[in-house]
Design a protein that fits this description.
The protein is mainly β and about 90 residues long. About 0% of the residues lie in helices and about 50% in strands. It starts with a strand and ends in a 5-residue tail after the last strand.
């Protein structure tokens, strides 16, 4: 299921080991992905979209944030990590 609107749109959940696509409508050149207390990872925005691998550090049932912008004007999506896809 998709979430967000305006500046940032993407899935509300994603299985371990997959990649999600997030749409970014701000002029920002990158987004940050934050998992728990770990250092953020930065991913480039290309043509208004960014491909983000579901962080290996995020266990099923936990969440990670996709953040765009800085300080008072930031926006984020909260994505739940689900179990791995089964073939």
């Amino acid at each position: 299921m998709q979430q967000g609107g305006g500046e940032l749109r993407g899935p509300s959940s994603a299985p371990t080991g997959t990649t999600i696509e997030v749409t970014v409508t701000t002029p920002d050149a990158s987004v940050q992905v934050v998992v728990g207390g770990l250092a953020p990872k930065t991913y480039p925005v290309q043509d208004g979209k960014v491909q983000i691998p579901v962080p290996a550090e995020a266990a099923p049932g936990s969440y990670f944030r996709v953040v765009v912008g800085k300080r008072k004007s930031f926006k984020f999506l909260l994505v739940e990590v689900t179990g791995a896809l089964t073939p």
